Predict the structure.
Amino acid sequence: MSLALTPRPSRTAVTIGRLQVESLGLNTTARDFVDYCLSEARRFAGRPLYSTSVNGHAISLCARDPAVESMFSDADSISADGQPMVTLSRLLTNHPLPERVATTDLYPEVARLAEEAGLSFYLLGAAENVNREAYEATRRAYPNLRIVGRHHGYFGREDEARICDEIAAAKPDILWVSLGVPLEQQFCVRNLGRLGGVGIVKTAGGLFDFISQEKSRAPGWMQRTGLEWFYRMILEPRRLFVRYVTTNPHALFVMLTSMR
């Protein structure tokens, strides 16, 4: 990691594969985002901080594809978006992950703090109707939060420079990129240099689908027991069955053999 969201010397991380996953809770992570955006360090950084998350699917992809692993390793911070890795870290490490930091849970906490601090968001990704509804749902929940722009995720490489120029001109404190793994990581790595007006770029996976209520989340007990993936697979078997059947066992193996 090239930069830290805060200068605390006590920051710890759990090694999963060859990734360093931060041992921070959800509230601390949200506060770090806001504190960084308000800090002097942000003014002199020259580029946004790049923050991402890993779940079982991402861990498996990284272990199998060095190019994908490199894009995650380039991130300035990596959060744990998976309950199994939290549980295993408590058994296998000296500095366990305190809790799951799911982006869908992180977003409202960051929004609440950002609204209080006068910070701004930009929403990039998903289909136009989903992006629009995510924007409207956020405005309803946080009426004083500044959302300085939004754009759907159905664009080509030839459009990236224009879109990035528009985002940089809007100067959002936090850009949420909801393009899915690994497209959102590819976007971030390619374009950080074009986003000089942005404070933090946060990959968001399927965040806008959940904010817009296009898709439902698993019941709380399934989230707490690490079974949210199963709930999602039941809802979308054609898209997710093969992915989870092949990546979950591999991710478990990676975690058991590398976590420290």
Q: What stands out?
A: Strands lie at 13-16, 19-22, 49-54, 77-80, 120-125, 146-151, 174-178, 200-203. The longest strand covers residues 49-54.
